[in-house]
Amino acid sequence: MGIFKIFGQGFRGSAKKGRLLVYLWLVNILFSLIIVTPFYFLLQKDFSRSLAGQKLIQGLDLLSLGDIIFKYQDVSSLFVGWMLVPSLLFLFLQIFLNGGIIGRIAAGEEKINICNFFGDCGRYFWRFLRVFLISIIGYLVVFGILGRILSAIYKAWIKNASTEWTVIIASLLRLLVFLLLFSLVKMFFDYAKIRLVAEESKKAVRATVLNFSFLHGRFFKAWGLFLIVGLVFIALSVIYLVIARILPQTRLIPMVIVFLWQQAYVFARAWLGVLFFSTEYDFFRIHQAPSA
Predict the structure, then answer these.
(1) Are 262 and 245 a contacting pair, CB within 8 Å?
(2) Phi/psi at 107 (nearest 5 deg)?
(3) Whole-model pTM?
């Protein structure tokens, strides 16, 4: 089966996972509320019904901004720590949710409910966490070795650049290559997660090693399928940014519209996550060979 047919099959499969998308959206918005709430109360306490609050709405001048920075200089370390901890928690949350996504995809037509979704999240969390730890090595190797080579090529290219266009083109090409390398590593370890679910295995190292034989001879098909979904993600992101840019954000009703548009994008990103795994699972199932 060609990759476009697999994409269409995965597209139709992800479209049937409406309840799964609702769960993902609810978990993400709840997590966001937990993170934002402390900052909301901090700003509400100090800026509500104040001249500084009015300036935040109307736009700050440099002097007022300096006063605010001076006032909160002692909480900068707390702010950094507060942002670092949620970032780590969000990473673990995504590992947790991936188990529910792939588990429900593997379940086929079985009805999705909150019990079997979170049951899959918990069942596969530790297996996926081990895959994540192994993937860190993969990212370090790929970007540590190839990244240095690319940086050397980039520096040699722009060293004798006669115009800024040479630097711009070189920078864009370097960014594109880095994104492609990132997609390769991510795709590789996605299939390790899928194998763990499809085979009900707990051996993360074995699943990772078997990926080399699975992708041998069909690597470009798998990568092409991954990139097709990636292009859908880019297209939706561009549409979101273009429309968000032109929406007014100064009055209540337009702000509500902006909020709803933002949540639509969050929902779309959840669907794209399901689409990535759905297409990869179908590709794996179609090409799966008996494991050694």
Answers:
(1) no
(2) -75, -10
(3) 0.80
